[in-house]
Amino acid sequence: MAQKFRSFRVEAIVLKHRDYGEADRLLTIYTRQKGKLQVLAKGVRKVRSQKAGHLEPFSLASLQLAAGRTWHLVSQAEAQDIFINLTSDLETLGYASYVAELVDRFTFEEEENLPIFNLLKQALTRLNEGSYPAQLVVRYFEVRLLDVLGFRPELQTCVVSGDEIQPENQYFSAALGGVVSPQAGKTLSGAVPVSVNALKYLRHFQRSSFNEAARADPSPPIYHELEILMQYYLTYILERGLNTPAFLRKVRRDPDAKGQI
């Protein structure tokens, strides 16, 4: 019977952390090689710790891990990119936290999934660069993540009748996983309205590369509609709400807080 390696190196993105004991920190990371892991960084909260600056939330780092009784232990850490702009203001921090929370909620430990790692890395890189609207980056990430996870919503044909969707306002059913025609949607429990323009952008994101999707220019009301629709669908799949959307809504209501950190 093959034994697990007692020490191995991974490329990892820190999703979140919490203090553990007097000087340690328990990290949830997503790795290129092994998917999601929980690892313990011993002594990292000590003033003289050489690993502390390499293990901040959202950091991309090369980690040497050693097998421990409960968790893998971080024996070495070298940051490759700390994405410093993600913490420059509360709104950007909120979007980065949202992306990390989605990956954390939708994945299980030690299930390798390179496409998810790449999507996460790309989203954080784009948010950090700030060259594109944050909402565009996040909406595209959501659509692509759903594809990888096997929850791609049906947006071309009515999930009730099977008929091709016409260019008019429709409904969307999270339970059925897709768009519903006006005739069927009016009486379908749980179906919510979706405008023809919002549906157009979702279809565009599904079929396009990011560079192609980035040419889209949804209006603020469409962005708002897309956000509500995606939260409705993601919450249904997860069977529970997410934490970061409430934080983002609070920041948006308080313009003075957007630039504070």
Keywords:
261 residues; alpha+beta; five-stranded mixed beta barrel; 8 helices
Task: Provide an overview of this structure.
- Helices cover 38% and strands 21% of the residues.
- The protein has 261 residues and is an alpha+beta fold.
- A hairpin with a 5-residue loop joins strand 4 (60-66) and strand 5 (72-81).
- The longest helix is centred in the C-terminal third of the chain and has 19 residues, at 220-238.
- The chain is elongated, with a radius of gyration of 20 Å.
- The protein starts with 6 loop residues before the first strand and ends in an 8-residue tail after the last helix.
- Overall mean pLDDT score? 92
Strand order of the largest sheet: 1-2-3-5-4
Largest sheet: 5 strands, mixed, barrel
Low-pLDDT parts are none
Gross geometry: elongated
In a few lines, what is going on in this structure?
The protein has 261 residues and is of the alpha+beta class. The protein is 38% helix and 21% strand. Helix 3 packs parallel to helix 7.
Q: What is the strand and helix layout of this fold?
A:
Blueprint: E1 7-20, E2 24-31, E3 35-41, E4 60-66, E5 72-81, H1 90-106, H2 114-129, H3 134-149, E6 170-173, E7 178-180, H4 182-185, E8 192-194, H5 196-207, H6 210-213, H7 220-238, H8 244-253
Parallel strand pairs: 3-5
Antiparallel strand pairs: 1-2, 1-4, 2-3, 4-5, 6-7, 6-8
Helix pairs in contact: 1-2, 1-3, 1-8, 2-3, 3-7
